[in-house]
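Review form for a predicted model. The reviewer records the input and the model, then writes brief findings.
Reviewer: anonymous (R2)
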Amino acid sequence: LAQGTPPSRRSLSAVGRRRASSEASGGLVWRADVERRLETSDSLDVVIEPLRDVRVLYAVGGGPSEADRRESMQYHGANRGERVVNLGTGKVALAPVNVLVLVHGSLMFLSWGVLLPVGALVARFARGVPPTAGPGACWFRFHWMLQTAGTLASLAGAGTAIALVAQSGGSHFGSLHKAGGLVVVLLGSGLAVLGMARPAKDSQWRPSWLACHRFGGCAGLLLGAAVIVTGLLQAAAVPAVIGLASAVLALEVVAFIALSALWRSSSSRAASPIDQQGQRHSSLQSRSGRIDVKTVVVKSPLREDPKVVP
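Model under review:
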């Protein structure tokens, strides 16, 4: 099946299968005969020239047992690939790696799989790292640098996606991955602009701005992870690449859950009643009524006698 030929537009005159023994593998050999016009006069079809190499995608299904493989063809799983076939000479070769696909996937994973999620974690959990206030705050500097680098990588990845569509033809938004990628890039760019236009802390618009920035960031990260997964599946990435990307995304989720638990634990300890730290109360009765006086005992590490702070 020539690349670029949609299933709904393929003309299959005869499809058959033949069982044969294979001495090399000891299994079955499946054969499918497909017939299609070299030129279909359809803008969505690739024109096949007899002496020109054609990229062919293939997938072979098979059940878990020998009996299943003999009786029916099932979901292919990892039994898929791509070859370059010359229909005139019959020569078959491995398909070369598309550099644009590799660059696009690398940039988008670097952006939405590494830089932007780590920048969000820094803004959420690193506010206690000194210095903590002002434009020179540690968390703010790292958050700004990571989000800026992630946004630039996302825009560069979008540029390679446009070049890919121009190279292979077809629609820019003809799949779920392409449409989701457009939304992700626009959302990420909008959040960057929104971050630079943040109002002052005492502004009446500050709460609304903060809510939009946080909600948009969470939505963008979730959608970005989904677009990464659909992109890997669409590109028919090898299982090792899919496993590595999944491991990185899962590690970030685990880090978020663990840091959230630690943050809540430290917050609850900081908000615990001061009585647990050595506070003692005394009540004095005056002529005008009852007066509650709170006294905190603070032990100095350099002196044996405690300081009494009313």
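Findings: Residues 1-26, 274-310 have pLDDT under 50 and may be disordered.
Further findings: The beta strands are 53-59, 80-86, 92-94, 279-286, 289-298, 307-309.
Recommendation: see findings above.
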